[in-house]
Structure formats: structure tokens, C-alpha cells
């Protein structure tokens, strides 16, 4: 979905660029009028309007309601890495510490599903700006369950991204410290860090491995001209550390704006000319910059394909037009269509 701002966010039209047909489809989705589209997962969109959240399949128009953010909450405690008495660490923590009043602002930064929401075992995770950072629910639950924990880092709850793989939730900090959470036994494991990166994304690879994508914007005279990307994976030898890689096997990585990223197998794509081991991304450039008011600035964009082994970058769409970033603009994100 390319960026698509509308005045007051009152337009129900949403744009979908079809890579296989090389064309933009305009879909009328009244369910998206006046709401924020916070992410996509397993072919479904996560919608938010204030404290009301839901899922929408843009192909079938099916919708699934989720618990209100201002509704009752429960909690699950994740013990610190070096807790002396982990069994009793959260005895004095109460759910009311995370309660949200109807007037509180909750901004969902990212939402992910563990499977199709039609699967009764599906779990919805949200990563938010609010009195709590992480929460989850199962389809049909009446309330969100807040994941509570003590931060081990001096920058507190400043996560950059989250992802889910093989039954574990992963978070990444500004210094690429990745923590793996086991919600079944309420434990966590620090996997790696000590890489000073700004602009990082966690992605589950097609084989279940965890990849980290670093994007580095290139500015010329204050104008954004291009973005370069580097991919890392955790080493398997000794202490986990991030190592830069130029070979991600059969992965084709897709990167949208903010926290939207996914990985697909090249065997499942109808683009034999692409091959594998590449990154497809929405390339954004400054068209008109207003240094006094960012919301008055204009950008244009196109979709590019970068080969990770040789760095060759190909423009695969041409110019997709201009857009203005405002408080209600639709961020670009990738969607894998689903009829289920």
C-alpha cells in the first residue's frame, strides 16, 4: 500500500500497488475511513480509531473486532534476566497501573498476527506509545494482556521494533539488543547487541531465523535523496552477535515505512527475474522541503529492488507520484493478499 494522505482522513479509497501486474488498484474500503492503518499481517490490516481496534481483510471485506484499549486489562510478568526471586517478582504489580481512560491517547506503532485470524490459535501483538509498550490478545478475548517487565537498559522502554517467530516474541532496542520472550514460562533471553544503529527493523526469515535490516537515509543539502540498507543476522558461534551478511538465501525481503517489513520465499513469488537474496523497498525522496513545518513538505517515491550480493539497485515501478506527510497520512506497507 503506497502512502495515501487525505484531508481529514475521510476518504475511503485505498491504493494497492500490484507487483505482478505493475499497476495501482483503487479499492473502496469504507471501513478505513477516518481510521489509522497501523500494519498488515497474514493478509489482514490492523485498524485503529482512538481506542477501538479491529482487523480487516481488504480482499474479502471480512472484519474482526478486537478488545477496546480502554477496557479491562490483565497482565503477564516477564522476569528480569538476573532476578534473585523470579517467582515473586511481580507479586505487587497490578493491572490498574496500565489502565487507560477513554481520553488517553494510544498510538499503535506496529501490530502483528501469529497466523490467520480465522485460526482460533491466532495471537495479536501490539507495540504502542502508551502507559504500556507491549500487549497481546487472542481472537475472541475480552481484554488485552499487558506484558510487564523491568527494563534492563538505561533508555527504558525505547523499543525499535518487534516480531514473532516459532512461538517466541522478539524486541530490538536502539543499539540492536534483541530480546527473546517466552510467554509460556514468562522468561526472556538477551540474544545480541552492541551495534550502534539508528533505523532498524526485525524480520522473520523464511527458515525461521531472525534478520535485522538497517536503513540509512542519504541527505543532500537537507533533502532526502535515497536510503541505503544493510542486513544482519545473529552468529551461531559462541556469544550471539550481529554480523553483516550479503547472502540471505531464498529470502526476498520487503521493507515499507516505519516498522513494516516481511520476508517471503523466492519460490512463492511469480518474479523469476528477481531471483532470491534481494530487498524490495519503497524509496522515498524529498520533492519540496519546508524547514519550518515538516507537515508542509512533499515527497515522491517509487519501488526499488536491491540485490544484496552485488549492491545493484533496479527501479521496478517508475515514479509513483507525490504525497504530503501530515498527521493523518497513510504509511506505506506491504500486504500479502489472502482469501481467508
TrEMBL record:
Which InterPro entries does the record cross-reference, listed alphabetically? Answer: F-box_BR-signaling, KIB1-4_b-propeller
Q: Which Pfam families match?
A: Beta-prop_KIB1-4
Residue stretches making up the KIB1-4 beta-propeller domain: 16-281
- Protein's UniProt name: KIB1-4 beta-propeller domain-containing protein
The protein's organism comes out as Carex littledalei
Amino acid at each position: 500500500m503506497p502512502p495515501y494522505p487525505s484531508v481529514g482522513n475521510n476518504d475511503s479509497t485505498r491504493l494497492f500497488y500490484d507487483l505482478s501486474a505493475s499497476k495501482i488498484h483503487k479499492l473502496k474500503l469504507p471501513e478505513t475511513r477516518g481510521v489509522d492503518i497501523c500494519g498488515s499481517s497474514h493478509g489482514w490490516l490492523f485498524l485503529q480509531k482512538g481506542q477501538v481496534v479491529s482487523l480487516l481483510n481488504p480482499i474479502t471485506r471480512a472484519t474482526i473486532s478486537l478488545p477496546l484499549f480502554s477496557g479491562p486489562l490483565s497482565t503477564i510478568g516477564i522476569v528480569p534476566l538476573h532476578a534473585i526471586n523470579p517467582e515473586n517478582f511481580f507479586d505487587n504489580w497490578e493491572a490498574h497501573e496500565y489502565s487507560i481512560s477513554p481520553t488517553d491517547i494510544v498510538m499503535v506503532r506496529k501490530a502483528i498476527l501469529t497466523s490467520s485470524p480465522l485460526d482460533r490459535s491466532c495471537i495479536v501483538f501490539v507495540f504502542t506509545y502508551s502507559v504500556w509498550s507491549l500487549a497481546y490478545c487472542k481472537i475472541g478475548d475480552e481484554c488485552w494482556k499487558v506484558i510487564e517487565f523491568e527494563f534492563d537498559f538505561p533508555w527504558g522502554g525505547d523499543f525499535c521494533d518487534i516480531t514473532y517467530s516459532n512461538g517466541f516474541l522478539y524486541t530490538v532496542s536502539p543499539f540492536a539488543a534483541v530480546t527473546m520472550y517466552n510467554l509460556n514460562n514468562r522468561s526472556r533471553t538477551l540474544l545480541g547487541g552492541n551495534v550502534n544503529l539508528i533505523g532498524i527493523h526485525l524480520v522473520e526469515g523464511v527458515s525461521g531465523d531472525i534478520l535485522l535490516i538497517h536503513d540509512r537515509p542519504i541527505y543532500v543539502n537537507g533533502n532526502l535523496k535515497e536510503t541505503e540498507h544493510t542486513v544482519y543476522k545473529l552468529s551461531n558461534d559462541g556469544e550471539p552477535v550481529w554480523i553483516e551478511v550479503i547472502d540471505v538465501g531464498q529470502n526476498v525481503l520487503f521493507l515499507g515505512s516505519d516498522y513494516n517489513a516481511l520476508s517471503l520465499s523466492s519460490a512463492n513469488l511469480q518474479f523469476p527475474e528477481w531471483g532470491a537474496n534481494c530487498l524490495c523497498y519503497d524509496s522515498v525522496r524529498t520533492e519540496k522541503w519546508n524547514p519550518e513545518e515538516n507537515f508542509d513538505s512533499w515527497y515522491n517515491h517509487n519501488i526499488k529492488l536491491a540485490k544484496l550480493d552485488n549492491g545493484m539497485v533496479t527501479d521496478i515501478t517508475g515514479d509513483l507520484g507525490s504525497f504530503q506527510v501530515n498527521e493523518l497520512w497513510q504509511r506505506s506497507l506491504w500486504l500479502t493478499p489472502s482469501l481467508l
